[in-house]
Each structure stands twice: as structure tokens, then as C-alpha cells.
Write a structure and sequence with these properties.
Length: 499
């Protein structure tokens, strides 16, 4: 969307969530605008859900408005400008007491978020380290896939040679970026975190001996970089606390890099290397010996994990596998959860043939679902309806079992990057038997997820009562409005909104 459209959406949302004074914090992920609100009773849920740009809402520790990829970043930026303007920063007028109080509450809330200690908050902070790296992982992964395809065809050997460093350069320095983002997220100086983490990938570490073995450049990977940068943050804080200000500019960076780097060489690289190797062995063993069961469980439970925020623990694992093995074998299995949602939505579309509003939502959200953006379907269709969310997970479990079983039989398929899923993952697939075989396995999983999700929802997704109720809405809207909200319709916006 253009800036004008993004601003229009932000201006429409602002009064419906209680105005500027009610907003304590503003953030966003890949698809959701996350608002910390002082009083949630001021939210006008009905009017908010009726906005064409709003795909759904979620009640969590923050109030979340699903806007979709791309749109959410622009709307968030415009909303922040509106909040600043409300305080007089853009117009030059004197800020009102109400606006200043609201901005103060937002700052306090954001500080509480940064300093919170629960496990979910810790996982989100780790995710904040890796999510900014996803665009580069995707770009480099697609370039690597292109180079592999050209090499297999025997075309343009000179170009293939040139594409090697283009695709691998970022991966060779991934630890540096992880260290930089880690220090930034945890309150240290980002470049010092990157400097300490760079020790891990420096070629000269091959001359260093630790624990009776010579180190290998890159040993420990992103796990070591994460640990080294966390240590650097603590060293920096400790040094600044005890040093006089006049010495800070010289001594603090020196101590941080010196002791952080030595700790990385003579401890963290070895320990993190063992952890990284264990992660790789565990993933390989899991697919080789229990692929079908593992795929069933992972594919079926991934969406509930997303709902709980626990999926963020998988991001460092994906990244470690990509750096260590060239691809993550877990992502194609987890992507099957989206296939179950697509099949489920198709069944809902047929079953609710008299409910034009829900069918309109499905028509608008289904293309995004096919490309792996499942949140419009989840929050706009399956989760509000209740039982279809469960049958969609059944479809995801079936697709995951298919991909997992193929891995158990020697046809493992992996992804060279994280982020995309659905059809968008095809260019990033990799496997021991080539691109065509990997695509066949992954495509078979998608079809399985579509079919099982469709059948499970068509036959078991509705009771007779709920089916009659939803199909009666269009025929008798006045009577439908007098009914209470249907069971299971929680945490997401009402699905009956036109597009």
C-alpha cells in the first residue's frame, strides 16, 4: 500500500482502539500490529473488524491486529507518526497533557517489555535477533537454488562460479550479524557484539588449540555467536559500572573485545560446536528413525505452538541447521500446517454456501494461504469458527507425516532459508536426490494436507446446529444478530465481514 493508504488505515484504527492516550506501546511482527493498551474496554471490536484492511484480531499480552505482510510495516510507521503528531512533534503545537501522559505510558510499557523475564518473553527476544536476518537468508537461498539448477543443467558455468560467493558470502558471516543483533537486543553496543562474534568465523582460529583440538573456523556457528555476544553485553555493562567516565571510551571496548574474544576461543566455540553438532545429529536421527511420527506431531501441533508463541524457539534451530547442513529439514514439515488450513478453508467455503460474508473472507485470504501466509485464514476463518481449526491441524499432521515418512525412507527434503512456506517454498527446497525429487516430496505433502484438511473439515468441522446457524445468517440477519456468539469464537475478529 502507498503511504496515503497506510495513513488512512492508521487513522481509521486509532480512534477504534481508544485513541492515542490509550496506546502504551506500538510494535509489529511480519503480519500483526501489536498494541499495548491501557484499557481494552475502549476497543470498538465491531467497527475495527469491519475495516477492509483488518484481517482479524488476537487477544494476547498485547492487542494484535492482523494486517498481513507488507501492509503491517507501513501502517505501523504511519500510526507512530500519528502518535507523535498528537504530541505536537510534527505540527509544532504544544503537546497536550493527555498526549504526553499517553506517550509516557507507552515508554513505560516498552521498558517493561524489554526487561520482562518470562520464558515467552525470552523466546521473543531471541526471535528478535534472527527475524531481521530472514530477508537475506531468503535472497541467498534462492540465489543458491538458481546456481544449483544452472549447474545441474550444465548452463553458464562462469555465472555459476560467480553465484557461489554471492549466495555463500552472507552465510559465511552469519555469526557476525547474529552477534550484532544480540548485543542490540540485550542493550549492549551492537558493533562490539559483532566484533566478539567475528572471532568465530575468522580463518586464523585454525591455528588455535583448545581442549586438545585445533579449532575450526565457524565452529559453534550461531549458537556460539549468540553466547559470545551475550557475554560481551555483560562485560560491557560491568566495565562501564566500575570505570570512571574518562576511561570508558578506551577501556570498555578493549576489555569487551579482549575477554569476550578469549572466552569465545577457549570455551564457547567448543561448547557451542558440540551443541550445534548435537542439533544436527538429532534432526537427522529423528527423520531417519521416526520421520512419520515426528512429521505427524510437528505438522499437527505447529499452529498451536504459534498461537502460544513457542514456535520462536525453533528459529535458532533452523538457522543452525542451515549453517551446518545447508538446509533445515524441519521447515518443510512445519509448512504442512498451512496446507491443512487451505484445505479446511476450501471445505468451509463449500459448507457455508449461504454465508456470503465468510465466503468473501475465504476468497480474499486463500491466495495468501497458498503462498504460505496463513494468518488471514487462521484468524479470519478457522480459529473463530472453533472446530475447523482442529480439523485444519489434522490436515497439517497428515501432510507432515507424508514429508516425514519420505525422510525416513531416505528422501529427506530441506529448505535453504526460513520465512516462506506454501508454494513460496519450492524455490528454496534442497535434498539428497536433487531439486525435482525434493519438489515431488514437498508437493505430495501439500496435496496430502489439502485433501485431509478438506475432508476432515467437510465431514467433522461443524455440528448440525452450527452449520444451520451459519447458513441462516444471510437469510435472516436480524435473527442471527440476536443469537449469542458461536462456541469457539474467541481471540479473533468476527468472520462475518465483507470484502
Amino acid at each position: 500500500m502507498s503511504d496515503e493508504k497506510n495513513r488512512a488505515v492508521a487513522e481509521a484504527i486509532l480512534p477504534l482502539v481508544g485513541g492515542a492516550a490509550n496506546i502504551r506501546s506500538v510494535a509489529h511482527c511480519m503480519t500483526r500490529l501489536r498494541l499495548g493498551l491501557a484499557d481494552r474496554s475502549l476497543i470498538d471490536h465491531q467497527a475495527l473488524s469491519a475495516l477492509p484492511a483488518v484481517l482479524g484480531t488476537v487477544e494476547d499480552d498485547t492487542f494484535q491486529i492482523v494486517l498481513g505482510p507488507g501492509a503491517v510495516a507501513g501502517v505501523t510507521a504511519q500510526l507512530r507518526r500519528l502518535l507523535d503528531s498528537d504530541g505536537g512533534t510534527e505540527t509544532g503545537s504544544a503537546p497536550t497533557a493527555e498526549a504526553l501522559a499517553g506517550r509516557g505510558e507507552r515508554i513505560r510499557a516498552e521498558a517493561r517489555v524489554r526487561n520482562a523475564t518470562p520464558a515467552k518473553r525470552a523466546l521473543r527476544r531471541i526471535a528478535n535477533i534472527f527475524v531481521p536476518l530472514i530477508p537475506a537468508l531468503i535472497g541467498c537461498g534462492i540465489v543458491a537454488a538458481l546456481a544449483g539448477a544452472l549447474a545441474n543443467l550444465g548452463w553458464a558455468p562462469s555465472l555459476v562460479t560467480a553465484l557461489g560467493p554471492v549466495s555463500a558470502g552472507f552465510m559465511s558471516l552469519l555469526a557476525v550479524f547474529v552477534g550484532y543483533n544480540t548485543a542490540k537486543e540485550f542493550g549492549g553496543t551492537p558493533v562490539l557484539g559483532g566484533a566478539v562474534a567475528s572471532v568465530i568465523v575468522y580463518a586464523g582460529v585454525a591455528k588455535v588449540e583448545a581442549f586438545g583440538h585445533h579449532l575450526t573456523p565457524g565452529q559453534g556457528g550461531v549458537v556460539g555467536a549468540l553466547g559470545a555476544a551475550l557475554l560481551a553485553v555483560q562485560l560491557e555493562r560491568w566495565t562501564r559500572r566500575i570505570l570512571p567516565g574518562a576511561l570508558d571510551v578506551l577501556v570498555t571496548p578493549t576489555i569487551t573485545v579482549l575477554f569476550g574474544g578469549l572466552a569465545a576461543l577457549f570455551g564457547l566455540m567448543f561448547v557451542a560446536g558440540e551443541i550445534s553438532t548435537a542439533i544436527g545429529h538429532a534432526a537427522t536421527w529423528l527423520l531417519a528413525h521416526g520421520g512419520l511420527l515426528a512429521g505427524l506431531v510437528l505438522g499437527g501441533l505447529f499452529l498451536p505452538l504459534v498461537m502460544l508463541g513457542l514456535h520462536q524457539a525453533l528459529i535458532p534451530i533452523h538457522t543452525t541447521l542451515i549453517q551446518q547442513q545447508g538446509s533445515t529439514v524441519l521447515l518443510p514439515i512445519l509448512a504442512m500446517a498451512g496446507a491443512g488450513q487451505v484445505g479446511c478453508a476450501a471445505a468451509v467455503y463449500l459448507r457455508l454456501r449461504h454465508n456470503a460474508s465468510i465466503r468473501a473472507v475465504i476468497r480474499s485470504a486463500l491466495p495468501a494461504g497458498l503462498l504460505g501466509v496463513g494468518e488471514p485464514l487462521v484468524y479470519g476463518v478457522t480459529l473463530p469458527l472453533g472446530r475447523p481449526f482442529i480439523t485444519a491441524c489434522v490436515g497439517g499432521a497428515a501432510g507432515g507425516a507424508f514429508v516425514g515418512a519420505a525422510g525416513q525412507l531416505g528422501g529427506a527434503v530441506g529448505s535453504t532459508a526460513i520465512g516462506p512456506s506454501g508454494w513460496a517454498l519450492f524455490p528454496l527446497l534442497a535434498g539428497p536426490h536433487g531439486m525435482a525429487a525434493s519438489a515431488a516430496v514437498y508437493g505430495g505433502g501439500l496435496v496430502t494436507g489439502y485433501v485431509v484438511g478438506f475432508l476432515a473439515t467437510y465431514f467433522f468441522g461443524f455440528t448440525r446446529e452450527t452449520l444451520a446457524e451459519y447458513n441462516a445468517r444471510a437469510a435472516d440477519p436480524a435473527a442471527a444478530s440476536r443469537r449469542s456468539a458461536p462456541p469457539g469464537r474467541t481471540s479473533a475478529a468476527p468472520s462475518g465481514r465483507g470484502r
